[in-house]
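Per reviewer request, we include the raw input and output of the structure prediction for the construct analysed in the revised manuscript.
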Amino acid sequence: MNELYAWAAIGIIILASTTGDVLLSYSMKRVGDVEKLGKRRGMLAVVGRVLRTPTFAPGLVAMGVAFYSLLFGLSWGNLSLVVPASASLTFVANALAARIFLHESVGRRRWIAALLVACGVVLMAV
């Protein structure tokens, strides 16, 4: 039963971490070039602009959910499964989410890497 809980935690980690990554990336793209803004207005202006971006706080919450799901997953499953599976499948999910939600160009090399990572998780889980 603990193995089922560990896989459920891995699924939540992947979903929450990918959601957080997408929301935070979107937030920072809306903020713009942090270096230019910092030179022009100062770092406090950069921090203020980041905090006022509507997708920033939900992104932080999603990352927090991913972190606490990792803690639960580690209490239910083996470190040698939970961490590599969640990290590598998050890599795959991030590539998909970047393409779908952020309209980023994901090259063939990255898709091949994601496929190899997924195959590695399957081998590890068997």
